[in-house]
Amino acid sequence: MSSKISTMALIGFLVLVIATFGSVSGLEPSLLDVTAIVCPAEKPYICLPYGVCCGGDQFCFQGSCESCFPADVSEESLLLKWCQEKGLQDVSVMRHRSCALACYARFNSSVLQTHKDKEEETYFTDRTIIIAATASVIFIQFVVIVILIKCLVSPRRRVEENRAREESTKTVEASNQINEMMEQPTDVDTPMDRMRAIIQLSHPESIEETIPLTDITINP
Known about the structure:
This protein is mainly α.
């Protein structure tokens, strides 16, 4: 039991020594040395764990300083274009956080902001066009549906109106004929003959079937 405690104490002591004074191999500096490093103004950023100083256009990656800007871009105009198109949107490794600052540090922020505003304006313009086109398509579909419904309903309504008009015309004509017949003198002047004539005009097909006129008694 005492040997285990001694072993754990020794391991803890070695870890503390390595963390404080560096590794045994000497590849990594101690924490005291790293915190004591003062980077120059042109390379103000400390890259851990080795304490390397990185410049404003560099980012720290796995203990070394990597350039934010691609090596094949040297002209300022191309570099500005790279910052506008990729440098502010690149999310690989640490570029999204540090290299965006490098682009703003190297170029005027108003220039980069103008590009961003143009992108936002283009986005909103495209979105407005899409919304307007969608609304137009929906409206056109609604109009087409309304027209189809009218085309289906109108013939049926027209047929019903024509039928009602014909029935009304027939009723008026029959009424006129009855009135004319009642007003004009006739050779058969008995009440029975007049009744027979009126019924024949009104219902010529059922004069003998439905109303037996022989059973009708009319007082003169």
